[in-house]
Amino acid sequence: MENTKQPTGAFTGFGPEWRATSLTPTEARTATAWVETKIDRRSMLTGKERVEDVREAMWELERDGEIVVHRIRDEHEPVIARTLYGWEKRIPTNNLWHHKSCGQCGNIPGYPSSVMWLMNELGIRYLDETDQTSCTAWNYHGSGIGNVVSLAAVFLRNFHQAYVSAKAQGLPEGTYFPLIHCGTSFGNYKEMRHYLVHSAELREQVRKILAKLGRLVDGKLLIPEELVHYSEWLHVMRGRIAERQKIDCSQIRATVHPACHVYKMVPEDVIYDETVMDGNRVAVSTGLLQSLGAQVIDYSTWYDCCGFGFRHIIGEREFTRSFAIDRKIRVAVDEAKADVMIGHDTGCITTLDKNQWIGRAVDKVYELPVMADCQFAALLLGAHPYKLAQLHWHASPFEKLLEKLGIDWEKAKAEFESYLKEVAAGRGENLYDPRRAITSGPGYVPPAALTQGGAE
Amino acid sequence: MTHAAPTARALIADPVSGDTPVPEAKLEAVFNDIRSHPLYDQELYGCLNCGICTATCPSAHYYDYSPREIVQLLWTENLEGIYDAMQEKIWACAQCYTCAARCPFHNSPGGLVMIMREVAIKHSMQSAKDALRPFTRVLLKVISTGNQLAPNMITKDAFPDWGPNVSKIDAPLDLLRKAIPVPTLHTMDTAWVVNLKTSVELYTIWEATGVLDQLEQVDENLFDVISDVMDEKREEYQEWLDEQDN
Predict the structure, then answer these.
(1) Is it true that domain A54-230 has CATH number 1.20.1050.140?
(2) What's the whole-model pTM score?
C-alpha cells in the first residue's frame, strides 16, 4: 500500500538521501519504545565479539618476563567488585596514591579535597605528591597533538612514580597504589594498557623512553594490576561512608550524569551491580547515593554526554552550552524534578555547572546544583560547604540544595570569609602535612626518621 | 557577482571548477598515513551502515557530522571524501565515544577521528590550524608544565558566558587558592604544583614521541615560545643538580 502521509521535514542534517518516516505519533512511540528498551538494558554494551579480559594477557606478559605488574597487596585492603561481564575487579581501599585531575584541581578544587577528607574520616593512608603530570589526554582528544606513544609513556611514567613514591618515606616500593581522579585519565589509561599489552612494538618504543628517564623496574615496563577510578573506591566504601552520615538526604531527588570516559571507554572494565538500578546503569555514584538514602531519579537522556567536547568547551562553546542545557539540565529539571545532578568526572561537572547562566539569553532559565559524588557525600558527613567542599567555585545554585539539607549556607559562608583572614595570616588548615607532597627533586627534604635510618 | 574563495570540497571534486584539484598522490598520501596508523586496525572492523553511532552522537545533533559517514568513507576507501571530511567535519566530534560503546562491530568512529586529526596535523592542514587556534593557551600550559589547566586561566573575562559566579566569594585568587586544604593546590600557574624534575622528564617524552614536531606543524610561534620555556626549565633543573653535587 502506498504511503500517503506527507514528510514533516522536521529533521535536517542527515544528508540529501534522508526522507522522513512519516510515522504517526503512536507509531513513533512504538518504534522509540523498542529503542529505549534496548538502551535501558546493557545489551548494547555486551552483545559484541572480540571482547577480552586484557588482564589475562597482562599476566602472561609478566610470566614471559616482558613486564612487571604493580600488585595489589594485602596492605591495600582490596574489595572485589563485578564489572560489565561479571568479571572480578579488585579495588584497593588503603595506601593510595592520588593521581590528580588538572580540571578538578584547577577549577573544582572541592573535588579532590572531598576525596582526601573522606579518606581522613575513614582512616585511610594516602599520598598526594607533586611528581605527577596530567595524563595529557584532554589535550589529545581536544587538539590531536600527542599520539599513542606519548600517551602511553606519560601513563607509565606517572604510575612508575606511584610505585616508587613510598621510598621517600622509607617504605617499600609498591606501598602506594594509584587512584585515578579524572574520568578521562581513567579511560585513556585503560586504552593505553590495552595497546601496550597487545603491541610489542609500542612496548619497545615506550621502554626506550622510560629507560632514559630511569623509569623501568628491573629493565621492564611497570603496569598496575588494576586501573582504579576514585568513584570505584567510593563505591566499594559506600557502606562505611554511610555509617558516618550525619545529615539526612531522603528528601533529595538526585539525578546522575554518568561520564562517557568512565564507562563508554573500555566498558568491560566498568562496575555494574545488580542491586543498583538492576544492573542497567553503571553502579558508581548511583550506588553511593542509594546507600546515603537519596532518591535517585532516572531520566530519558541519562546516556547522553554532557557536551564538554574537549575542544568545544574552549573553542566552540555554543555547542557545549546548547547540549548541556537542552539534553541534560533541562531534562533533569523538567522531567526528573531534580534537586541536584551528581557526576563523577571533571569535564562533566564543569560543563553542567558553568553553562546554566547563559541559558537566560535565550529564555532557557534552568537552575540545577551540580557537584561531584564525593562532594555530596562529604557534605552529608558534615564537611564544611566552603572550607572543605569548596562549593564557592561552583556557578550553579548549590545554596538551594544546602537549604533543603538543612545546612545554613549563609552562616557557613560567613565562617569561611572569616577563615580567609586566618589563611592570609598563614594559619590555613591542611588535610595532610605539606612536607609529604615532595618526594624527590627540588624541595625534597628526607624525613628525619629516614635520615636516621628508619621509616617515617 | 562575486566568487567566494574555493572550499576544500570545490578543490577536490567539483567537476566544473577551474581550480586545480587536490592531486591524487596527495589524497593517497593522506589516506596511507591514516591506514598505517598503529591503531587503525583496532578502530575499524567493518560497517553495516546501521547508523546507531550517528543516532547516539551528540555532535550529529548540531553539526553536519555523522560518525557513520566517517566510518563508511574509510571502509570504502573514498579518498576524496576522506580528504573532504578532514577539512572541517572531523573537528565536530565531541570525543565522547558513545559511538564506540554502541557499535555492534566494535568500531570506534571517535578513535578514527583522532587518527584523522593526527594526520591533518601532520599534513599541516588549514583546518587543523584553525581548529587549534583557541587551544593555544592550553597547549602552552600542558606542554611546558605537564598540567593542562591553571586557576588563573579561568577568569570572568575568559569565560563571560559562564556568568558572574566563577567564584561566589569575592577575594583575591591567590588567597582563595591558599584556602583549599590540599597543599599541592596552593598555586595559580598550574592546577597543582608540578615538580620541576617532573616537567623536565615530560620534555623527554615530548621530544622522543614527535609531539613537538606536531606542534611546529600547526603553530611555529607557539613552538618557539614553548622551546624557550623548556630550555629555561632545563637550565633551572641543571643548576639545581649542580648545587647537589657541590
Answers:
(1) yes
(2) 0.91
